[in-house]
Amino acid sequence: MNTSMVVLHSLLLGTDQCLEVYGQLKLSYFPTEYQPIFKNIRKFYEAHGKLPTLSELELSASRILADSPILNLFLSYEVPEDVDSVVALQILVDEFAQTKCLDELEKLLVKVTDLDAEQLVSEINNIGYELGKDSDVATKILSIKDIEAFPDDDSPPAYIPLGLNNTMDKNIIGVATGETILIGCKRGAGKSTICSNIAVNECSNGFIVPYFTIEMRASQIHRRNLGIEAGVNALHLRNNNLTVDEKDAIAVVMANKYEGADAVLTEYYSHRKLSTLEKALKHLPLDYSKGQIIIIDNPSLSMVEIDTTLARLKARYGARLRLGLIDYLNQIKVPDKYDWQSQIYISSGLKEFAGKYEMALCVPYQIDKDGEARFSKCILDSCDYAILLEANQAESWLRLTTTKARDIPPFEVTSNMDWGTLKILPTDYVAPADTVDDEDEDL
Predict the structure, then answer these.
(1) How far apart are CA 266 and CA 306, in angstroms?
(2) How many CB atoms sit inside 10 A of residue 261's CB?
(3) Are 92 and 1 in contact (CB under 8 A)?
(4) Which of 87, 284, 320, 357 has the highest Cβ tally under 10 A?
(5) Three-class SS of residue 186?
(6) Helix, strand, or coil here: 443?
């Protein structure tokens, strides 16, 4: 059975499904010999606003196609009646992807002995990137009979609190699975800090939280997360000069992540060495019932690796995996990460992953001095929420302002911020009352 013939004929049946299939087709899906037929179908559609019938295609065929033996072969082809056109489309895409993959692997085999391990991984990732970009067939056309808008009148909406501001979580923004939240930050303005706070908050609610880190190493992220959760001074933690009380607070947080850690924690109080406590805890099983942060440390993180990692984690943890973080969008590896088209592909791909794995994804992105996304403002097109982050250390606040918010009006909230511990407090910041100046006192 000729898949290309089946798909091309399915466009000429005059049904609604014809348009569904046509809207997802690309010229590159077809072998070279069948591309003239698709080009003529597309030309007819652009000229008349509808797909042709078989007779109309024959009548309107360009001279080049009319002189080609492929037209007669196409007109005489008997199409099987029991093949669904959408299924045929998916098979066509699969065949295209398989052929493209084999071609790219053949090119790679020629030079594989000249590549080191890092270059080889990069080349393979690039193949996956190109396949993912060129083989996307995800459109669904649903009638109201296919959609559940109110699955249970008695249950509240399944929104995920970010824990950054109580007003935002309760009254304004409701992040749901399948949604992406892009957080715009200037360089050095707190991308990793806000990711750590969201991860700690979600973990404290008993969920499994994947945290993809590109710039910072796993040990740095883990130490920062512990410090935020324990409420200890970040500089003391970084410089390894914690007070006794701060060490004890860290110890309790660490022990709480393991099963049966009471005896190990009690032993800690006799020596108060966090390194000794950590080694002892690693002999115990992790307590996943209380939530865990899983750190994926990869300076060369690619879209393929994000996809496969989320697939493995979702298969293991199911509904307990509902929110993930990627730090940060502009550093995800693609063939040219500084190209605006690549940045748009990353943003739309992350949105696809959120829907595919039924989870929300929070991803910081870098902004310029004017608050615009670097490289391309179009990275915000596919996300559900775009939030600008502004921080003020002198006044101890952190402000979140939407530049895009789906289904809700734009909003701005300002949270209290403990810069000592790097903990974002969910309470609303209230500016201190203005002090009376000297001139008023004289009056």
Answers:
(1) 39
(2) 21
(3) no
(4) 357
(5) coil
(6) coil
